[in-house]
């Protein structure tokens, strides 16, 4: 499928997701930042468990497992929470939409992978306003760092070669559904 279709059809959902994660303010405080890291912990754990178990099913191809496993970022969030002395192994998580096919799994994954792009901007901003450095406390947003662009391009290549045009609608529906879970989960309770 053409990645541009995902971008165009989820533009409005991206705006809502961006609004649900209001970290780009100069007045951002530490407690507020940690609150959002904790919400992200639930979201990312739910996503990585669901994606891992879907990709791990016997009927799914090996390349899919590798694509999912290489892109996990949960440990970065845990490091950040440890840095702030706020790591708790028990936390709530959202319920994710079903992903019945490889195309819908990849459509949902588009959301989490795309968030690494905005994450680069957020990482630089929170370092500045909260006085963080060396990725300590902002490892999740810095993510794969200078590899981010290349990994994103590679993932776009996966969408283009592995999602047949006819299944583009299923990928878009899965992306929209995951964006919506993300936004409502992040808004579920303010600090
Ligand atoms: C403050 C929050 C955010 C900012 C400032 C932001 C910013 C950006 C920017 C600048 C890009 C384009 C990068 C490029 O073309 O090189 C982008 C792409 C993207 N972002 Fe965000 N973002 C934010 C939050 C999110 C969240 C929370 C999600 C998902 C849960 C998300 C998902 C995506 C996706 C899927 C793309 C790829 C769009 C495409 O090119 O197809 N973003 N974001």
What spatial form do the alpha-carbon principal axes imply?
A: globular
Helix residue percentage: 55-70%
The main β sheet shows up as: none
User: Got a strand count?
Assistant: 0
Mean pLDDT: 96
Helix and strand content put the structural class at mainly alpha
Poorly predicted parts: none
Strand content: under 5%
Distance between the termini: 40 Å
Write the CATH fold name: Heme Oxygenase, Chain A
List the ligand species.
protoporphyrin IX containing FE
Number of helices: 9
SSE sequence, one letter per element: HHHHHHHHH
Measured on Cα atoms, how large is the radius of gyration? 16 Å
Key attributes of the depicted protein:
mainly alpha; 191 residues; 0% strand; globular; binds protoporphyrin IX containing FE; 9 helices; Heme Oxygenase, Chain A
Task: Please characterize this protein's 3D structure.
The chain is 67% helix and 0% strand. It is mainly α and 191 residues long. It has a single domain (3-23, 33-186), classed as Heme oxygenase-like (Heme Oxygenase, Chain A). Helix 3 packs antiparallel against helix 6 (102-130). The protein is globular and about 45 Å long. The chain starts with a helix and ends in a 5-residue tail after the last helix. The structure holds protoporphyrin IX containing FE. Protoporphyrin IX containing FE binds at residues 3, 6-7, 14, 17-18, 21, 23-24, 110-111, 114-115, 117-118, 121-122, 182.
């Amino acid at each position: 499928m053409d990645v541009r279709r995902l971008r165009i059809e989820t533009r409005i959902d991206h705006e809502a997701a961006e609004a649900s994660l209001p970290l780009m303010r100069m007045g951002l405080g530490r407690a507020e930042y940690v609150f959002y890291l904790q919400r992200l912990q639930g979201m990312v754990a739910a996503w990585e468990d669901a994606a891992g178990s879907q990709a791990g099913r016997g009927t799914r191809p090996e390349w899919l497992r590798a694509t999912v496993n290489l892109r996990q970022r949960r440990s970065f969030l845990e490091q950040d929470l440890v840095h702030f002395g706020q790591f708790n192994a028990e936390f709530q998580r959202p319920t994710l939409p079903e992903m019945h096919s490889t195309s819908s799994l990849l459509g949902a994954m588009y959301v989490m992978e795309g968030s690494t792009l905005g994450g680069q901007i957020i990482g630089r901003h929170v370092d500045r306003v909260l006085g963080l450095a060396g990725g300590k406390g902002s490892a999740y947003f810095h993510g794969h760092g200078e590899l981010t662009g290349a990994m994103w391009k590679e993932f776009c290549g996966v969408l283009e070669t592995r999602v047949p045009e006819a299944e583009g609608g299923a990928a878009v529906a899965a992306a929209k559904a995951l964006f919506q879970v993300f936004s409502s989960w992040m808004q579920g309770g303010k600090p």
